[in-house]
Amino acid sequence: MALAPFQQLLDEHGRDVHRFLRGLVGTDHAEDCLHEALMSALIAYPGLRHHDNLRSWLFTIAHRKGIDHLRKRNREIPLEVVPETPHVGELTIDHELWSQVGELPDKQRAAVTLRFLGDLAYSDIAGIVECSEEAARQNVRAGLANLRKEYR
Amino acid sequence: MKLGADDIQALEVTGFDAAMRRFADVAFATGNAEVAYGPIPSPIGTLLAAVTHRGLLALAFETEDQDDVLSMIAGKVSPAIIDLPSATQAVRVQLDAYFGARLSVFDLDVDRSLLSPFQRAVLQATSEIPHGEVRTYGEMAAAAGKPKGAQAAGQALGANPIPIVIPCHRVVAANGDLTGYAGGLDRKRFLLDLEQGEQTLF
After folding, report:
1. In this structure, which topology does domain A11-150 adopt according to CATH?
2. Are residues B91 and B154 in the same domain?
3. Is B168 an annotated catalytic residue?
4. Same domain, yes or no, for B10 and B88?
């Protein structure tokens, strides 16, 4: 089967990838990460041999870009001001739950955003963050437990 | 200030569409996207124009399914296709002038990737038919080096991916009948009348 026009992927999954990145890196940086992720995807797309789960493939690239961004940003914060609690991208939209998602540890945040903003199955999440399906479930469970604790 | 769920959704939509436009722009400018497309309004219905950096690749009537046209391009040229109407601006300007009877010769680069060698020969000859004139299928076949290939020429013309700009509507049967046209005979008649300076309603 031939590959569909790339635009079709953008139409079907673009919004969800954007929403996922807003959850992962915050509103201010989501657009840049989205741009980079989609450009990487577009460049790789014509040479793609397996294309049975393009949604998961797009989220894998977006997740990688998001994590790269967070690592780069963390390196830019001088050591003495690194906060005790895991600090993530600022969420400028004043939405309490969302900002609490931003306070979750990296793995939990990635798992929760993939599950609820990306609407992905645990098997897909496992493939994207490179862990077992059980670990993906556990990260979502732990993330939700933390949110319930914080968001009251 | 607190934002409600509706505000958040609105923000998200605005941000996304702007981000997509910026992405499409950069993607095509860098050549990472090989094909860009957009709609072009015309008196005979909205046309779908697809362009590459080499030029106009395809022009489709609204009777054709847009997804089918783009899938065909994805298979034959490249799947790196994006929605970017601004890339089709030059085509739009000349088509506007053509339909306004202000332009009789298109000056557009054409990407011949979708054409077979025989089709190239037939459509090259077709491109040379002057505005306002007609030729027969037999004449086009002869010009393409196949004097007995009127039927093959008809097929090559019927599969013309760039109608109007490559004026396959100027080719008619030996007895003068309009015969076939991908966009339907009404459109063929409209284009020929337009070139005769006759105002007709489509």
Report:
1. Butyryl-CoA Dehydrogenase, subunit A; domain 3 (1.20.140)
2. no
3. yes
4. yes
Chain A contact set for B9 (CB, 8 A): none
- A46: chain B residues, CB-CB within 8 Å: 34, 78-80
Q: Are residues B11 and B95 in the same domain?
A: yes
Contacts of B37 (CB under 8 A, 6+ apart): A7, B48, B49, B50, B51, B70, B81, B82, B83, B84, B85, B87, B88
Instruction: Convert the pLDDT of each residue in A3-34 to its tens digit.
Output: 999 999 999 999 999 999 988 988 889 999 99
Q: Supply the CATH number for residue B36's domain.
A: 3.30.160.70
CA B121 from centre of chain: 19
CA–CA gap between residue A50 and residue A48 (Å, rounded): 6
Please check whether residue A99 touches B, CB under 8 A. Answer: no
Q: What is the pLDDT of residues B123-161, one digit of tens each?
A: 999 999 999 999 999 999 999 999 898 999 999 999 999
Q: What is the ipTM of this complex?
A: 0.88
Distances (CA, A) of B109 to B27, B166, B192: 21, 11, 23
Note down the domain range covering B22: 5-99
The CATH number for B174's domain is 1.10.10.10
The domain spans of chain A are: 11-150
Q: What is the mean pLDDT of each run of 10 residues along chain B (202 residues)?
A: 55 76 96 98 97 98 96 97 97 97 94 94 95 94 91 92 96 86 90 84 64
Inter-chain CB proximity B79 and A2 less than 8 Å: yes
For chain B, say whether A93 makes contact (Cβ under 8 Å).
yes
d(CA A128, CA A125): 5
Q: Do B17 and B72 share a domain, yes or no?
A: yes
Amino acid at B68: D
- Amino acid at residue number B114: L
Chain A residue with CA closest to B79: the answer is: A5
Q: For an interface test with A, give the residue of B3, B20, B83, B88 to mutate (most A CBs within 10 A).
A: B20
Q: Nearest Cβ partner of A14 from B20, B34, B74?
A: B20
